[in-house]
Batch of 2 targets.
Target 1
Amino acid sequence: MSDSIKLNYQINDEDFTRAGEASGDVKKRLRQMGCSPEVIRKVAIAMYEGEINMVIHADGGEINVEITPEDITMVLKDKGPGIPDIEKAMQAGYSTAPDNVRALGFGAGMGLPNMKKYSDEMHIDTVIGEGTTVTMKVYQ
Amino acid sequence: MTVKEIAEKCAFKILNSAESADAKEVRSVYCCDLLSIAMSRMSEEAAWVTVMSNMNTLAVASLTDVSCVILAEGVAVEDNMLAKAKEQEIALFSTDLPVFEAAMMIGKALGM
């Protein structure tokens, strides 16, 4: 793994049936590259939660992933409504997911908390009415 | 105990099986329908008992490397879910038992 690998995924709006394909693809690649199971698990969970958040709250968006020998960086960018109160959104159990999404098994209010828990670094840039960019890093 | 042995012992209905999935070891049993909680808590090689029957269930099963998924309470399964389970080689079973009873049966089979 001398060079870095860059991956780009477009996340469709309202497509819950396909959510997980991007994180599944990254997981498969990390496995092929021989990354540790713990790193793979952290990346897969953090990225899947991010993917789901983009579909639920922002009509989709774009994910860029960079894999280097040192770490995996995931940048999830959407043009959604933004997060009015990040502190509140980070609280376990707090959710603004609508009922149709809860019926699918989401809305536990664990999305952002899981993203923070499973990444080694997380940064949220959000502007109301413009969108949110979440950057997560998992160390190799 | 392997996935195949658990399914036989508990008389679960097979919705999808694959050679690669049948041979996987089951080391624990886990119950929860909320996907974020399940994803965070489940260990690899768990048998996951849930009533949440949709594509996202399979996405979580695949991402967490659980050994098999058991849909309890006889919940319906859509064709696209079966197709996905087949494509991803995820062992998927069904039972009319409630979640707790299905999990207890697996637990007994595992000697818990």
Note: The interface with chain A takes residues 33-37, 39-40, 44, 52, 54-57, 59-60, 62-65, 80 of chain B (CB under 8 Å).
Target 2
Amino acid sequence: MKHTQLAAAILAAGLASQVGAAPFAECPTQAFLVQGSASTTFGVNLATGSYEDLPEDKIPKTIIEGDGKANAVGYNFHDDHIYGWSYAHNSIFKMGDDFIAQPIPRSSLVNNNLLQTGFYIGDVSVNENAYYIYRGGNAHGLFRIGLDPEADDYLVVSRIISGSTLNYAIFDFAFHPDNGSLYSVDRNGRLIRIDGSDGSSQVLGNVGQSGTFGAVYFDVHGNLYISRNSDGYIFRIAVDDPNPVAEFFAFGPASGNNDGARCAKADILPSSQDELPDFGDAPDSYGTSIENNGARHEKNEGMKLGELGSNDGVQLITGAATGEGSLVQVDAQGGGALNGWVDWDHNGTFDNDEQVITDEPMDDGINRLVIDVPEDATPGDTWGRFRYSSQEGIGPNGGVSDGEVEDYAITVTESGVGVITYPGEGSFVSLAYEDNWPHQGDYDMNDVVVSFQTRKYVDASSNAVRYVMSGKLLAVGASYHSGFAVQLDGVATNNIDEDRVYLKVNGEVTTAEPLEQNAPTDDAVLIISNDLWEEVTADPGCSYFRTEDGCDSEQEFRFELSVSLVNGVPVADAPADVLNPFIFATPGAFHGPGLSVEGQVHPGRTLEIHLKNKPVSAQFNTSFFGLADDNSDPDNNLTFLTDNNMPWALELPIVWAHPKETEDVMEAYTGFRPFVESLGINNKTWYLFQNSVNNRVIQND
Amino acid sequence: MNVYRMFVYLFFAAILSACGGTSETSPADDNPAGSDSSISDNTPEPEPEPVIKSTADLKTTAEFELKSTETLELDLSIAGLPEQRAYLYVCHLETNETLDRGRCLVKTPILDGAYSGTFNVGNDVEGLGLEVWSYVPNAEPVQHFWSRSEDTMNWTVSL
């Protein structure tokens, strides 16, 4: 190092020590936008485009003494300060969390003669503690200035490449968080990568958007965000994609004379739950998560649907029947506009032609409007999305700075069809089985426990035309392997529209064919699982699934089975309420002694266990009736009862807290005995959790 | 009696004892009611209460299915709706007089304000509500509520 350089560095080190503003909080999520001829700083939430003046409560807000202009800002990951170019001082500055720029005198910069003036493109490297500024044209170029006070090159200016060689119409650039390169998008939409070490560059492709992108930023995942000055639109680009595209991401602030800085090592969302934007709830194929550019809104009490954060602001009052109008009620506050989409064709996305409400202004309070359900809408379960904001023209995805998004599961029906849900939407009964039949079990009623709900669709002629059964496996407290199925009593197998039967497990449609291939006139049986032990396993240290202390497994087996009928069945004759669910012995698996059938070692599908007095299926081996402890009298419709008339299965009208392993239900619920002995007159709500001996039961959600 | 036979004998004796079973030569058979040998002041011993050690010992009737639900019959008739078509909700309650439309038992279009149906409701359900909406945006819905404590299981609505 030359003596003059050394002297300048010593002087600069002294200056730097006087630059006393505290650093920013370590690598903040927020982006910083500096703009205006008397520059002020804004904090920008790139996820939603919301922004605020910084500092909020300090006057003056201008960052340069004398209201000067600043530009070419970059966030220094190494010291958590922002660096930039001050036009008034014709030099660089350093800014801490007071948002007052502290100029570093031009005279302190070693080789400052290399620098002309008017820089508006800059960033600080992530891989090295150095500031890079650029301006195109013969008199300028790409420059590096060392920022590490301990390094020999501290405040030493070096020109990487001439501005005539590296000459792009760009307005900001940003360092990638990992690969050491600079990226930008020029006014024609070309994505440019610049190697900071030698200034070589390449055009990676056209991202499909043009304009002045005056502020560009990276996130920790290597996504580049570009903000267009004219309209404030923020686009996201996956720079490693072979065909990079600028995806609309959020509505940000329109601006001019601007530049952006952001810690490239920060995620795009804050880590605090309280600060997260409002997101939707639909499956991610609709764009729900940040990764899929999900719909999101900066939370704002003044602009909301119903209660902020609750899915309660929009209701399709009169259902959604094909070819009919649907009355929609909206509870809104804030004077914004509503947009809505429904996935009528069930393809998992909200298509442009599926927008049902467009920038509809809302009064504060209750609003009602009618949307048209297309004639060709596909009947069944689908999703709708409603977005409310002061921002008009929004789509089903991307961020906005206020309001709320609410996603709803919507059931589209044929015209005139109603839905009867047992025990009610959002509610479930529980089915609790002892699996030892025909031998009496220990009555802990947890060998198989399932939550269960049924929906029956009834057409305008009062015929049941479709059933949907859904639920979740709550416990398996036995080593026997059992399956789970439902019989539609009185509905013939050949009256099931086999092509329209589907079974979803954990939200995904399976390839299973649930309709059992029985004789055409046999009552239809739908198999949900042939072996519940194939659906879940005992957690380490547990003998069973969710029947022991410390065994509250994270595993799930959720199911939804949809069954449409070829010919509707008059409601009076159609299966109702809980239908006829049962467990059966898994084929090929041991299910107790003395139950071999016609040379088969194990009973398999021929052994069923139903709720008391429910009929069996055609597959059942009636010779099992009367064995061991069973006292069934099927000729008189009395089935699955003991000599004392006690059952092997119970239906509880709630999601039940089932007894732990070997805890007799009578001991776990002291009201059970008087309920039974009084034939249901006393202790009618014995099954509620508050009536349990709570160290003897396992609670369920 | 060898040791094995003695073991078998004791085993079955123990089982009979545990099951509370009786032999054909029980004292009751020895002293049939009305016989001369009866002693007038010797009142019969009350039958011992059955020992209930587990659910297996409980007794009930063959017909009682241990259901914890009751059947509610709804008969609805509303006159003077703005249109022939309307839409009916029968739902659980959020509060005493607010329907929770996310927890409905019935959502169905109806004609001429009429509907009949039966529902099994859990014993813990204290009340339900219904709303009838016309398809006219500004018309207010007709509401009615059922309370287990105040009403029977026949829910008749005639307005």
Note: Confidence is low (pLDDT under 50) at residues 1-18 of chain A.
